[in-house]
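Quick one: structure for this chain?
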Amino acid sequence: MLVGGVATAALALTLPQSAIATGSSTPVPIGDPIGPRIQPGPVRVDLTTVTTAVTAPLAGITAKGHPNELFVVDQVGILWSLNLTAPAPVTPTSVLDVSSLLVGPKDPKDERGFLGAAFSPAFDTDGLVYTDTSEATSPADHPLRPSNDACLAASAQVPDHVDVIREWHLVTDATGALHVDPAMPNGRKLLSSEHPQANHNAGDMHFGPDGFLYVTDGDGGGADDQNCQTNFDGNPMFGHPGIGNGQSLDTPLGKMLRINPRQADTRGTVSANGAFRIPPGNPFPDGTVPEIYSYGLRNPFRFSFDRGTGDLWVADVGQNDIEEVDHVTAPGQNFGWHVKEGTFLFDAGGFQLKGSRSDGFPFANSPGSPANLVDPVAEYDHDDGTAVIGGYVYRGASMPGLSGHYVFGDTSRRLNNGQGRLFAFDADHRSAVTADNTIVELRDAPLDFQLIGFGQDSAGELYALVFGVPGPNGTTGAVLRLSQSGS
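Got it. Here's what it folds into:
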């Protein structure tokens, strides 16, 4: 395993026996973990099309010095600029093209590609932007942690891809448009991590109020975060040894990472590869992966900082049953995967794959226990969706009824049926009890397309990012501005 270019060693982590105690020798699956269905709330939102000239928009971000632009991460490899003052539909301008570096996406279900971007807090003076990309690898360059299970005796254990964080320098041409500095056509590679399977890549990134770069990484893919599990290709999974990646501190998989990437910022200790710094306050500075900030995550696909309070919110995509929203309040927190899925204890079962589901299951609701695990702030089950898509705590002006609410959603009501949903709960007045943080729907019915991301502009207004939108040349992606109905 390479993190910042340094091989890591195994680290033993013992979980308390209470993590699997049920009072019964055989855990019993809960068929319907969360009974009440999500209902429409008192606030409804309208959607206005900003552009349909994108393919698979995953994130909408801003850059200091560019208040009228929304920069859109397109999974196929383009960072677009949208001029929000231009009449709709806006024609986007390409700022950065990383498509030549990518492995995937090869089809609409492929989770690889260009997954995240973040502008330096001082972009107006340093011109730096950071990207998260799925790239090709080889066992010689990126060896996985050893998996010695008997089921893998005949397996080559070749990583599917490597997740790479790069720094780019953007410059302004004579027309005022941004483009890559020709002196650094491939940017500067900071760190990388091997992914044994193709899915659960997360890859979102944001600078926090502390000026450091936070990046999420999924548990390595497949299902249940365990070796020998049948993967979607019919072969046994590898790269998830021992207690799994989410709970192991010797891998960046299943984690939120925090680094100081800007060379002009000298806070922290220099990383082993010399490409960045480990910020002061990271919880495991002497561990084999000092970049870790929090762990126990499955696929923290999208996260955000509250622009008003600085609070850190993570939407972690669940396995077969539970979707969750986590509130990160301190370094070193363990959010439970795969000991728990949401507030429920989780049994990985055997190694069966039943279509798109594994045989893993939640078997007991256990809020607050084990005591070393942090429960989500809000959760729902698969009666209401298939994969949570994280958004933002709303601090804008056009939706006063949602001020202080965390606005997020689900990609598709049923697996890949193109019926995304928009949700919210009250973040400012949240309860300490997960079940009391009532999630409401912001539309009277699901969307007619798949929700895959959110954006926030410089004024704090929000955008839903979708694909599967009918267009003149087939389906396409779209950026849709949210506004309160009747406002």
